Each structure stands twice: as structure tokens, then as C-alpha cells.
Amino acid sequence: MDTFRAGYHETRADFCRRWQLDPDRPIIALLAGSRRQEIKDNLPAMIEAAAPLIADSLSPAFNYQLVLAGAPSVDDAYYERFIAGKPVKKVDNDTYALLTHSVAAMVTSGTATLETALFRVPQVVCYETPVPHLIRFAFNHIIRCKYISLVNLIADREIVQELLADRFTVSNIRGELLRLLPGGTGRDAMLADYDEMAKRLGKDVAPDNAARIMVSLLS
């Protein structure tokens, strides 16, 4: 990540031109995971949650565009099952550039949550689970780990909302996203929390090694 930042100088206008995006509309990034099942479970709800916020919706107060980060392990045909006919553009193998130019993101839990935080993009963590009420019971009474996102694990408190199990609903995702968009009530606090989390990682710690560090902290 540090190597990318040091060498990336593309303007937002150039990025939008390269991917045929609208340079006048703020970007909401969709990071729906790198596995087909994750994409199938999470991407439709992400799109539905953000639908009222896009420029061609019935809400003139919003003028956003949705841009999906395509995973190299997933072919275009699979993505088309979920985005065909939807107001979503896709960029391939360019997630860091996408985050650089995004104002908010919806992210499936994993290392992407930490990367999104280190790019200082306010995010909603979305993760659908089977038998959601059973999963919620397990988190409350059995599982010792309090969080699923690296951001919250590193901070040892909830910085980003983790909408999983019975909290994974379109309404909850949309409500949290609205809080994090420019002018939203939760945006500044999350950005400040990101800065504190980055300090906890340490200035001399390469972000690319954060997953390894978390394994050592949890073992």
C-alpha cells in the first residue's frame, strides 16, 4: 500500500476518464469480496441499499455513482449476474485507486476493511451469514472474539459498524451509509477514529503486514 501511494499520482478526473466514470459525481465504492459466494451474498444488498443515492434515482438530493472493485479471481460473466441493468460500473485490479477517489465504501469483512480505513474512506462493513439469529447468539454467548473486521480488532472497539447476522439488512446498510457520506453525522468521528487506529498500528508498520500482525495478536 505504501508503495502504491508513493507512486500513484493520477488525478480524479484522469481516473474517471480511464474507467469511463462521471467526474462530477462522488464515488461510493463497493468491495464485495473476492469469492463468488461472498459476492452472491453481499453485492445485491449493497446495490439495493445505495440505489436511492445515485444520480438517476428518484431522490434529486443525491448525485452519487456506484463503482464496484472487481476481484481478479472472478470473471466478468459472474459479476454480470448481479450488475446487469443496475447503475453500477466496475473497475478491475484497481482497488487502491478506486479507494483513493471514493467518498465512502461498503465493504465485505476481511483485509479490505483495513485497507479502506488506511485510505481514510468511511465504510460500512456488510456480511451476510446463514441462520443469522443463531450466528448472533454465538457472537453474544460463545465466540470470544468481539469483532470480525480488522479495523475494530486493531482498535479493540467498534469504529466501523459490522452489519452481519441479524443486523445485515438493506435498511441498516442504507442508514449507516447515509451517516458516513459528506455532511453525515458519523463521518468526522470515523475519520478521527481511523487516525487513532493508524497510530496503534505504528508508523513503522507496513500496512501490507497488518493481517500477519493481527494473527499474532489473536493467537
Protein traits:
46% helix; 219 residues; 14% strand; Rossmann fold; alpha/beta; 11 helices; six-stranded parallel beta sheet
Overview of this protein structure:
This protein is of the alpha/beta class and 219 residues long. It has a single domain (2-218), classed as Rossmann fold (3-Layer(aba) Sandwich). Helix content is 46%, strand content 14%. The protein has helices spanning 2-7, 12-18, 36-50, 76-83, 95-100, 111-118, 132-141, 150-155, 170-180, 187-201, 210-218, and strands at 27-31, 65-70, 88-92, 102-108, 123-127, 162-164. Strands 3-2-1-4-5-6 form a six-stranded parallel sheet, with helices on both faces. Helix 3 runs parallel beside helix 4 (76-83) and helix 3 (36-50) crosses helix 9. 36% of the residues are buried.
Strand order of the largest sheet: 3-2-1-4-5-6
Q: Specify the number of helices.
A: 11
Task: Return the domain count.
Answer: 1
The fold-level CATH name is: Rossmann fold
Rough shape?
globular
> So what's the CATH class?
Alpha Beta
Helical content, roughly? Answer: 40-55%
Low-confidence stretches: none
Strand portion: 5-15%
Distance from first to last alpha carbon: 25 Å
Oligomer: single chain
Sketch the topology as an H/E string, one letter per element: HHEHEHEHEHEHHEHHH
What's the architecture in CATH terms? 3-Layer(aba) Sandwich
CATH superfamily: Glycogen Phosphorylase B
Q: Using DSSP, what is the number of strands?
A: 6
Average pLDDT rating: 86
Helix/strand-derived class?
alpha/beta
- Rg, alpha carbons: 17 Å
- Major sheet description: 6 strands, parallel
